[in-house]
Amino acid sequence: MAELAVAHPLLLESTPQAGATIAETKRVGLRFNSRLEPALSHLRLEGPAGVSVLLDAVMSTTTGRNGLTAPLPPLRPGFYTVYWQVLTVDGHTGRGTFSFWIAERGRDR
After folding, report:
1. Mean pLDDT value of segment 20-29
2. Any idea where the domains of the chain sit in the sequence?
3. For residue 5, is pLDDT > 80?
């Protein structure tokens, strides 16, 4: 008898890209390998000095049911981490993180 593979959601792509150094961003976006239940999926941003904010994540219009997007408040220079927790339409959960830098104006990393 064949076994069924249990597929947990995997983050395929993020905006900003994981590890990127950028001048600014107004949104965060995530694309997964599975269709999501947006009402039961969450994004949180942690910035410099450990300040954390829950983001208003909605279904991405560009990736359909496989993606989430959220507007960001103005970000000052520093290191930021996005924490995600998602539920797929078939009931699987996943969580993870990715980080990026906002560069100081006039300075390259």
Report:
1. 96
2. 11-102
3. no
Q: Are 102 and 77 in contact (CB under 8 A)?
A: yes
Q: Three-state DSSP class for 38?
A: helix
Which tens digit of pLDDT belongs to each residue from 29-72? 999 999 999 899 999 999 998 889 999 988 887 777 899 999 99
Report the alpha-carbon distance of residue 99 to residue 74 in Å, rounded: 17
pTM comes to 0.87
Unique residue bearing structure tokens 């890209």: 17
Which fold does the domain 11-102 belong to in CATH?
Answer: Immunoglobulin-like (2.60.40)
User: Which amino acid does the sequence have at 39?
Assistant: A
Distance (Å, rounded) from C-alpha 80 to C-alpha 82? 7
CA distance 66 to 94: 13
Helix (H) or strand (E) holding 98: strand 93-102
Q: Are 46 and 98 in contact (CB under 8 A)?
A: no
